[in-house]
Amino acid sequence: MSEVSHSRTIAADAEKIWAVLADFGSLATWADGVDHSCLLGNGSDGDPLGLTRRVQVGRDTFVETIVAFAPPHLLAYDISGVPRSMSASNRWDLRPDDPGRTTVTLTSTVRTKPNPLRPVAERIGARLVAKRSAALLDSLAEHCEETR
After folding, report:
1. In this structure, is residue 122 part of a structural domain?
2. How far apart are alpha carbons 148 and 143 in whole angstroms?
3. Strands 60-70 and 52-57, how do they pair?
4. For residue 105, how far is the Cα from the chain centroid?
5. Strand 60-70 relative to strand 74-80: parallel, antiparallel, unpaired?
6. Radius of gyration of the chain from Cα atoms?
7. How many independent structural domains does the chain possess?
8. Bridge partners of residue 92, in order along the sequence
9. What are 80-117's pLDDT values in tens digits?
10. CATH number at residue 132
């Protein structure tokens, strides 16, 4: 398993940032590079766990499923659509700082199936996912700070 984290302090309250992240199907409205996003299925009985969205980025399609949801501090989801030999996930952690300021950390995790090059493959995969994750973090900051 390999993890890469990026943090950024955003000039917005945690609740405002949370509202953007928790509107799970609307990723394309604020994330640069995302061509389309929509909800595919609901969690059971209104519980967001298990809620899925489809994300279109160029010719690539991903399905993301919420696996942890603790408002307004934690959102985690598994990512399907990566190469079959690996699995990926993202975890958003929000930590309120001063009033009107929140530190947001996005951690990308990649796991690969056992093979001799596993550590190298996981590091490369994590860097690729983290590169996209850094762009998501920048887009979130831009969106939340411009709509203050």
Report:
1. yes
2. 9
3. antiparallel
4. 10
5. antiparallel
6. 15
7. 1
8. 75, 106
9. 987 777 788 999 999 999 899 999 999 988 887 776 76
10. 3.30.530.20
